[in-house]
Design a protein that fits this description.
Elements: H1 27-53, H2 86-100, H3 102-116, H4 125-154, H5 162-194, H6 214-230, H7 268-271, H8 275-278, E1 285-288, E2 294-297, H9 299-303, E3 308-312, E4 325-331, H10 332-338, E5 348-352, E6 361-364, H11 366-370, E7 375-380, E8 383-384, E9 394-396, E10 409-414
Parallel strand pairs: 1-10
Antiparallel strand pairs: 1-2, 3-4, 4-7, 5-6, 5-10, 7-8, 7-9
Helix pairs in contact: 1-2, 1-3, 1-5, 2-6, 3-6, 4-5
Bound molecules: ligand MTE and molybdenum atom.
Molybdenum atom binds next to loops.
Domain Oxidoreductase molybdopterin-binding: 278-414
Transmembrane segments: 28-55, 92-113, 134-153, 165-183
Protein name: Oxidoreductase molybdopterin-binding domain-containing protein
């Protein structure tokens, strides 16, 4: 055969094993990285499923961004309200771990990249099936990491469709991942225990001089992960620690100073909230209940109701969260009682007066309405809500994702959804 650069016998062709010269590649390195990913990706999948359940996706059609999820929604459960930091912890782990694993994923793909170029493409049916599953595995991994990072960094670049993409992608990816893990984990563990390199198609037949040891390479990957971790994890804390989150989104959205100095997602200006709509004269909260019973309440009316306090965080799907803030306002279940639901309050649909941007309404479950810490907050940390945090009134619910804590509330409709 002519030795054209692309023929497998030419050392200049990626289809030739001799083309891949790094002396680092081999079963040990691939196995170490694989075992780290085995644990890490399992945790990512589980925290991802849990996070999805936290949205109350079955409160259709308001919250549900994946209407055709079918049996993939089999596990959905009523998201609890305790412990109040549940979503904060879960989502913090999901996003921080996902970002931290990026160098490990890239190193793992690098360590096996020669296999991509194996010829012939399929030696047998079984081999063909294995390669297709690898396509789903690698494609799925890249897809999930890329959509996750884009969502965290760019805030819904795919209008309204991040949820179905990331949700279905997770199932495809994880199915391929399970197959791969079942097939490869026993061998990976053997490779780790033996430590000595056996012959393997991963080992270059034509290795270049090493410039770094395998352990050195591993330290390099670990160092990359540590760097990402260190520049991300701070977004889960207030104060100076948040400033260490160099990679976190909203790095520029300065929360300012004073009692309301905690992270802001969308500002009042962004959401098109005008003072003319929120001042004492203009703003009324409309509460609708049993048999259409309706109450129209000014902020003064709300202040005349029993006020309660709760220390609760804001925790966003993007992976940032605040520590507990002191919210003060009217209990959601007291509002339900006002319109005919004295005992056993039902679900509620909350609508914002916001006109701009994607977010307008969110639904809460009966168990969330019933919790005595679930408030229509009027104050935070001892002062009136600021416009950016939702003045005149916002929802705050324990353990719920931030997106359910509607700001600038205009209307609440109680009833089973
Ligand atoms: N009306 C309205 N409410 C909203 C939002 C919004 O864009 N508009 N963003 C939600 C999201 S995604 C989060 S994380 C929290 C953030 O609250 P904060 O800006 O007070 O920190 O508000 C929620 N409430
Ligand atoms: Mo959010």
């Amino acid at each position: 055969m002519a030795r054209t650069p692309l023929s497998p016998s030419s050392p200049f062709s990626p289809f030739s094993p001799a083309f891949w010269r790094s002396p680092l590649r081999g079963p040990w390195l691939t196995s170490v990285l694989g075992v780290v990913l085995l644990g890490g990706i399992t945790v990512l999948f589980l925290t991802g499923l849990v996070s999805y359940a936290a949205y109350n996706p079955n409160l259709s059609p308001v919250n549900d961004k994946t209407p055709d999820k079918g049996i993939l929604g089999f596990y959905l459960f009523s998201w609890p309200t305790s412990p109040h930091w549940l979503y904060r912890l879960n989502q913090g782990v999901h996003v921080t771990l996902g970002i931290t694993l990026i160098p490990v994923l890239l190193a793992k793909l690098w360590s096996v990249v020669p296999k991509l170029f194996t010829l012939p493409p399929a030696r047998s049916l079984a081999h063909a099936l294995e390669r297709i599953s690898l396509l789903l595995l690698v494609g799925g991994a890249l897809f999930e990491f890329v959509t996750g990072v884009l969502n965290v960094q760019l805030d819904y670049v795919f209008p309204g469709s991040f949820y179905p993409l990331h949700f279905y992608g997770a199932w495809v990816f994880f199915a391929a991942f399970v197959v791969h893990a079942v097939l490869k984990t026993p061998m990976a563990l053997r490779n780790l225990r033996r430590l000595r390199e056996e012959s393997s198609e991963l080992v270059s037949p034509n290795p270049a001089e090493p410039t770094v040891s395998r352990r050195g390479a591993l330290w390099f990957v670990g160092g990359g992960s540590l760097l990402l971790f260190g520049t991300t994890v701070g977004q889960n804390f207030d104060g100076p620690l948040r400033r260490t989150a160099l990679l976190a989104p909203h790095g520029g959205a300065e929360p300012g100073s004073g009692p309301a100095a905690f992270q802001i997602n969308k500002t009042a200006a962004y959401a098109g909230i005008r003072e003319a709509d929120t001042n004492e004269e203009a703003w009324r909260l409309v509460v609708v209940g049993r048999d259409g019973r309706t109450a129209r309440l000014s902020r003064a009316d709300l202040l005349a109701m029993p006020l309660h306090s709760a220390a609760l965080p804001i925790a966003c799907v993007e992976g940032w969260s605040t520590s507990d803030q002191w919210w003060r306002g009217v209990r959601l279940r007291d509002l339900a009682a006002l319109v005919g639901y004295d005992a056993d309050p039902p679900d509620v649909l909350v609508e914002s007066l916001q006109r701009r941007g994607a977010f307008r309404r969110a639904a809460l479950r009966a168990n969330q309405v019933a919790d005595s810490r679930s408030l229509l907050a009027l104050f935070v940390n001892g002062e009136d809500l600021t416009p950016d945090h939702g003045y005149p009134a916002r929802i705050i619910v324990p353990a719920a994702p931030g997106v359910l804590n509607t700001k600038w509330v205009a209307r609440m409709t109680f009833g089973d959804l």
